[in-house]
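Hi C.,

You asked whether I'd gotten around to modeling the 76-residue construct. I have! Everything is below, sequence then structure, no commentary in between.
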Amino acid sequence: MTNPKQYDKLDIVEMRKPHACQTNRWEIIRMGMDIRIKCQNCGHIVTMTRRDFEKKMKRVLVQNQPKVNPEETQRK
């Protein structure tokens, strides 16, 4: 079995086919049963099933780094 592609909300991904505006950078804006992605160039939003998304996604370009709250690190 191959490794599943690792992606998360707010990551920037590249799909197998470019969008009609000729850009191939998409931001994941919703994750659940369906995944919603937004074109980084024109702002068009597409919703697809997780299964379709995993088939059509080529790779993760930029992984979102979760913001660390400095107050939480001081409490520990």
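If it helps when you're writing up: The first helix runs from residue 50 to 56.

Thanks,
B.
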